[in-house]
Amino acid sequence: xxxxxxxxxxxxxxxxxxxxxxxxxxxxxxxxxxxxxxxxxxxxxxxxxxxxxxxxxxxxxxxxxxxxxxxxxxxxxxxxxxxxxxxxxxxxxxxxxxxxxxxxxxxxxxxxxxxxxxxxxxxxxxxxxxxxxxxxxxxxxxxxxxxxxxxxxxxxxxxxxxxxxxxxxxxxxxxxxxxxxxxxxxxxxxxxxxxxxxxxxxxxxxxxxxxxxxxxxxxxxxxxxxxxxxxxxxxxxxxxxxxxxxxxxxxxxxxxxxxxxxxxxxxxxxxxxxxxxxxxxxxxxxxxxxxxxxxxxxxxxxxxxxxxxxxxxxxxxxxxxxxxxxxxxxxxxxxxxxxxxxxxxxxxxxxxxxxxxx
Length: 358
Hints:
6-stranded mixed sheet; 23% strand
């Protein structure tokens, strides 16, 4: 197996608005796509099932996207194989999914019949307490993320007041002309997350960028104002020129700030680097976004910007600690479901899915 066959992404993460993700974008796909939506309790083998399917596909020479869980990056929330027009997704909370076109486009795979309901009923008090505690811890973590988002937004506003966005967009147009030649056909866009704050702290799948692109342009932007404008310009230009793109939004502004833009077909990537996800690639072109800012104006706000950055790092650390504590409770919760699960039956279902869909 070639490791370049496996690209690591997230499809959502904790954001200032709570959990924000793009799982719904995987539903209702036409043109021969089929999505499996797994329903099961925690610890019932969903991630293991998806890992086996990914291994089977890559063994056949297919490239896959591994969609990791932001609450536990060691676990999978999904696998996508564009060449087979196939995806399999964890359809349980916090990204509950229901089929839009049952059977025709999506199929629900329920593992609830593989559980010993009597055992779970006998332990309902302990299970309910653990579920509730996990929810409370994640909610507390989200509040720290929300607070961090306010400070990041304050720094953004300061940077906007010091930036020449017209010049930044014009420069982005030059980048598009250089790196994005016109293609035939309409452009297509997939939404993903490449970097987020997790129970391990800030996480960025930098290796995915290196696997997807030979030409990498790094926008070094500590405050996000200039890169936001440039990335929007590059994204629009790529689609207008007929490129298929993977747009990776920032979880701190999950619907309007693009952090990274990957164009696997053109083997080009535009990525944002800052202190929370520093990115450095051999041979990459690096653009310092402060060139589009008035240095004197930024210096006038230096103390406030530094305070915001330091406080944001502290808030992220608190969110990380709470997410890690939630994971510990989730692990306890899984012990009940692992005891209740018939893994032999689940393995048979996995084998049937591989035979039918892969």
